[in-house]
Amino acid sequence: MRICLLTEGSYPYVVGGVSSWVQMLMEGLPEYEFVVYSIGAEGKDRGKFKYKLPKNCIGIEEVFLDEILALRSSDMLEGILTGQEQQTLYEFVRGKHTMSIEHLAEIFRPGRWKSPLAVFMSSDFFDVIVRFYREEYRNLPFTDFFWTMRSMLLPLFFLLQQKLPEADVYHSVATGYCGVVGGMATTLSGKPFMITEHGVYSREREAEIIKSDWVKTDFKGLWIQYFYHLARIAYRSAQRVYTLFEHNGRIAVDLGCPADRIHIVPNGVHMERFAHIEELRDHGGAFQVGAVVRVAPIKDILTLLRAFAIVKREMPEAKLCIMGGLEEDPDYVAVCYRTVKMLGLEDVEFTGSVPVAEYLPKMDVLVLSSISEGQPLAVLEGFSAHRPYVTTDVGCCRELIYGDSNDTLGTAGAVVAPMDFEAMAYEILRLARDYELRRSMAAVGFARTKAHYTYEQFISSYRTAYREAAEEGSHGGRRV
Fold first, then answer.
1. Fewer Cβ close by (within 10 Å): the C or N end of the chain?
2. Beta strand ranges found along 189-324 (DSSP E)
3. Domains plus CATH for the chain?
4. Chain mean pLDDT for the chain
């Protein structure tokens, strides 16, 4: 069986998170072939893989958004769309109602147009944009509106016309561009399509857009609505949608995913990687705070630094070690370094990407400061290394720390509100001052991971999922 994994802004260019999940999935299922269709942000990353491809990964096809946006077309075509096709694109652009991927497939099926820019650069679609502008955005400059629409829609129109690798199952790791592309694949090929929703992609994009400088304020709502619309189309196209925990499943339903398509498969961790790490000891030396996290805005390293500044005032010998990649957002890394200097902090180390299993034995408590997560592998790895965690209340963290309604194991750390550095500092200090509390919480985290979040359980679930998908077929996918 061959599975086509559709990734976006992650594998194989970014270390950790969804990328680690993809690598673990392929390595754990050597009996299946995988091909990766990767949608990246910038062409400068072409071929710069952060992972050694498993033997059963037979190839990676790369496409980059900046290269799509740099394409130029010299001719504007006229009269290429029917009235119904114009209306379909108008409804898509408005994003008020969930539409069927089949309607887009009729317009964008591969081979229909000589140029992938033909539809966007046609007078027919220009009329659609003008109509939408006059109805809802006429108080704003049209030039700004047009270039915003181009940035939003041109990549999707291009991607919908690309020929995907042949596969028995198409599997997207997000509901953005790659989710809609997966819907196109199942429609054209009749092969099954599934989604794994790690966080809630559309909500993560919303948080990113609100804080961003690259989207003009007047158009932030338009971008946010667009990504929610893509998510609804992706949900409706997939035969199965896998989420990491029940709460995310409920959110997906609220966002338009049919409830009967939701399945829960938690992440799993290689606990044996940490088998050499002893249980937490009261070593009597400087208290070591650790964070296994790439340095990026969504991980909110600034809140962690502010919390550590408070810890440092109370415990001058405390140290902070931030273990994760520094390549994703150099500007944000620079802000973090400036913040360290501004706060007058000492004993803060940014290690870059390191073998985590070699560093965790040195840590007394681990911290996750993210403003958005799914089910973070870093927390499960910390638990596997017998370390308690202080996390923000995002994604599945509350369930990991406190357990669900059927879990009687106890508490494995503490949960605080996102961006609340004072509460974070309080919890770090509370654990720092009580070794027995740290030790008992670490034991709970280890037991919870062993019971519910092992790599073997994770792989077994997806082995079954792929087999059942192939046996059942797409149930609704059709050739156009």
1. N
2. 193-197, 240-243, 262-264, 288-292, 319-323
3. 2-71+102-267+459-472 (3.40.50.2000), 271-453 (3.40.50.2000)
4. 93
